[in-house]
Amino acid sequence: MSDNSKDLATVTSPYSDHEYPAGLANVSDDKVTDPGIEPHRVRMTDKSKKHEKAAVRQVAALFFLSMFGSAFALYAYFAFPIDANLDTVRNNTLFLGLGITLGLFGIGIGAVHWAKTLMPDAEVSEERHLTRGSEAKRAAAIEILALANQESGFTRRKLIRRSLYGALALFPLPGIIIFGDLGPNPANSLRHTFWANGTKSKPLRLTKDPDGALIKASDVTEGSVYHVIPEGLTEDNPRYLEEKSKAAVLLVRVDPKDLNEAADRKGWSYDGIVAYSKICTHVGCPVALYEQETHHLLCPCHQSTFDLNNGCKVIFGPATRPLPQLPITVDKDGYLIAQSDFHEPVGPSFWDRAAKTNSNGIEG
After folding, report:
1. Is there a domain that residue 345 lies in?
2. Domain membership flag for residue 356
3. Are 190 and 305 part of one and the same domain?
4. Cα 360 to Cα 263: distance, rounded to the nearest angstrom
5. pLDDT of amino acid 260
6. Residue 225: pLDDT above 80?
7. How far apart are CA 338 and CA 195, in angstroms?
8. 3 state SS for 16-52
9. In terms of DSSP bridges, do strands 10-12 and 328-330 run parallel, antiparallel, or are they unpaired?
10. How confident is the prediction for the chain on average, in pLDDT?
11. Does residue 348 sit within a domain?
12. 3-state SS track over 244-286
């Protein structure tokens, strides 16, 4: 047997059938020495009033830097607006980001520098009490908080306190104004689309997306699907993408006998041709999949499924209301035209907190 064989000898644990190396059998018998608390190192700010005052000025300077960064972010938001062609996104993002970074950086580093140079740094060890303390202990806790306030100098060091107040007051403002980029209130902005620009004397015709070709009812065969936008909505419109995202429509033709139309929507289709908003009522994804055999429209994002033959009501998925229908007919030349705008807001319904059950039994 080699010299190392003793290290590989095994012992049997009295609490199990497993065997362990003999060298590990008595590990639990070794005592771990309490390392104790490291000796306190006196800082220059503890010894010198000059260094203490310098540290106060440094902390305040960092808080003032935060105030400057937040103010610069506000300036950058308005000084570098994003235009319709998104050409100014780079400058807006760069300078707005720099300002917000300075706002957060100044507060964070200032607080750390304050704690490291001016607040007491002696380590203490206390027992943890898991239950509610007595009234005497609660009173003692209040005294401890008062002592912490005295030691940190929060109420005594006015320069630090006031500069911190200013930094905390300014740094949330850039984030608040950025919320303005989320757009106007959906309850208003989604209620009307580009289709509302049509009039009784000059209704908007339906055109193919993206070439803008007019659509005749005779050209729409049963089972075919067209992606449609309003006549006159072109890329030279400064709000082209926004308007298109709201007005996009799916045009489908089915056997008129298969349509189960509500009484108040009998005149909204033409010879089996129906038009519904392309924007899913769940979170706004484009509904672009059509099952010809079942006449179902599917949203690829979260699998919401709409029954085209029954007013596009929801039959599966997280959407909560049917797709809005665009009333259509034909003009004297046989081209498909919109009778009016949608009669309800398009797009997702999560913003509508006052949802009511409609005639289809779906909340919307």
Report:
1. no
2. no
3. yes
4. 12
5. 93
6. yes
7. 7
8. CCCEEEHHHHCHHHCCCCCCCCCCCCCCHHHHCHHHH
9. unpaired
10. 83
11. no
12. HHHHCEEEEECCHHHCCCCHHHCCCCECCEEEEECECCCCCCE
DSSP secondary structure string, 202-237?
Answer: SPPBEEETTT--B-BGGG--TT-EEEEEETT--TTS
DSSP structural state of residue 196: G
Residue 86: is it exposed, middle or buried by C-beta count within 10 angstroms (0-12/13-18/19+)?
exposed
Q: Are 344 and 331 in contact (CB under 8 A)?
A: no
In the predicted structure, residue 1 carries a pLDDT above the cut 50: no
Indicate the number of domains in the chain.
Answer: 2
Whether residues 170 and 193 fall in one domain: no
Same domain, 207 and 116: no
Instruction: Identify the CATH number of the domain in which residue 219 sits.
Output: 2.102.10.10
Is the Cβ–Cβ distance between 364 and 355 less than 8 Å?
Answer: yes
| pLDDT 10s digits, 278-337 | 999 998 899 988 998 899 999 999 999 999 999 999 999 999 899 999 999 999 999 999
Joined tokens for residue 309: 């033959």
The reply to whether 259 and 152 lie within a common domain is no
| Residues of the domain holding 162 | 44-125+134-182
Cα dihedral across residues 303, 308, 312, 313: positive or negative: negative
Same domain, 244 and 150: no
Q: Would you say residue 4 lies in a domain? A: no
55 and 116 assigned to the same domain: yes
pLDDT score recorded for residue 275: 96
pLDDT single digits (tens) 154-191: 888 889 889 988 998 988 888 887 776 666 666 667 77
Q: Which two tokens stand for residue 39?
A: 């000796």
User: Token pair 């206390």 is at which residue?
Assistant: 126
**CB environment 143-166: b (16+ within 10 A), e (fewer):** eeeeeeeeebbeeebeebeebbeb
